[in-house]
Queue: 2 jobs
Job 1
Amino acid sequence: MKTTNIKAYGAASPDSDLDQLDIKRRSVTPKDVEIEILYCGVCHSDLHTARNDWGGTIYPTVPGHEIVGKVTQVGNGVTGFKVGDLVGVGCLVDSCRTCESCKKDLEQYCLNGFTGTYNGHEKYLDEQTFGGYSEKVVVDEHFVLKVPTNLDPAAVSPLLCAGITTWSPLRHWKVGKGSKVAVVGLGGLGHMAIKLAKGLGAEVTLFSRSEGKKADAERLGADEVIISTDADQMDSVAGKFDLIIDTVPYIHDINPYVATLTINGTLVLVGYLGELDPMLNSVPLIMGRKSVAGSVIGGIAETQEMLDFCGENNIVSDIEIIKMQDINTAYERMLKSDVKYRFVIDMASLKE
């Protein structure tokens, strides 16, 4: 298969800074869409992959799975897109499409393993996939999304991970008018959870350890802020919430939040992967038919639904635009939560 060399930014090892390198992109197959990348959001997963925090990173690695760009070429079998369209690519670029999950538009739970936008397996070239910190990307049209043209394209890019990660549980647990939703943690995921839950008509509460988050949470749409270290405040919302979206990415005690669920309520983990410590107390679960669940990103149809909803309701991420050359500084700032609320790379800077 023919390939093209293009500029990208990536890491050569777990200890190295990200720097410019060349990668190969395949020529378009009949069902492929070639996209010039205009903006790419910066996700915690990018940093974890670059530094091999989860193990299994194949080097060199090029992160980036919050991609917005313009279509520059389409294969002769493509029906849904044309040159010039504004499009997005999220965390998935392929799946088996034949398993029970894929048949239900749940490609993120592909029983044969989905192909990640980076650090996955590029079946055409038999090498790893490279992400959006690059000039362009070639993706099967099934995994390309239409971006509403009324929205700021830079601020759309984080919707493709942070947005869908919080939209999927909101939809699965049928949040709407009259729902009481709480969000744990105010970062890239948390700020989108507030905006989307509010957009769906829910009453929204933020759980935070910091009084300093109150004004910003209310600006984003939260109706109330509860300081999770204040026992009286936590008692005041006991048994209240239909759904809690827990976005905290590190180990923490979820038992105090379970106590704030109503009968049949669910706490869904979208940020933390690993064992719970302290352990989960099953008594409130059993005595109130409460649930602790997990959720990861969303399928393609659901992601398109979210983008359309955001277009209709003028919902985008709060972003800080950076140059590609500043990515290593952005990673250090991200580790300190020093961003409101998502870095987005202006990929025009890669040409400098």
Job 2
Amino acid sequence: MKNTKMMVVGFLSAVAVSVALSTSLLAKNNAAEPSEASLEASRLQSLAKFTKVLGIVEQYNVDNLTIDQLIDKSLQGLLSNLDAHSTYLDKKSYDNLKTQTDGEFGGLGITVGMRDNALTVIAPIEGTPADKAGMKAGDIILKINDQSTLSMTIDDAVSIMRGAPKTPIDLTVVRKGEAEPLKFHIIRDIITVESVYTRTIGGNILYIRVTSFDKKV
């Protein structure tokens, strides 16, 4: 009888310890996992911080950017820092992307970039109006029509140079070895982008290069 009582007491003690441990672990898990209310409060706090900073920037930015422009820049920063494959496109950027993926557009046929803060021709595309006019890699574009390129972005320059086929455009460029700026009067045309190049190497190897993906690949 005495042994039975001891067994019962031992069993009850084990149950009590087990319940206490379970309760302790449950309390720890609950403490480790924030509640929905705390998550919502944190979210609202973060949004309030963003709104406050946005208001300060809107009031004091030196470029007089509108709230829409500031929001676009905020979204661009957010997506560009998210991962290597995310980006934000405003209407202008989206329209440019559609033009590029169409595989053809009205323009001059030059690739441009910024070198030493100057709008520079990287290369003319063979057979295009720019190539036929005599433009060369390394030409620095000073003016597009009568508009200076000194404070112009690449996107703005490309937007101006692109246009309806058979329409004229004037470029003033500086070329190494030339004492005076050169002026080119060019008629825009349909520029077809060759996105796939092939050649045979050694007679039995076919080399295929894909430079971009568009509707004409």
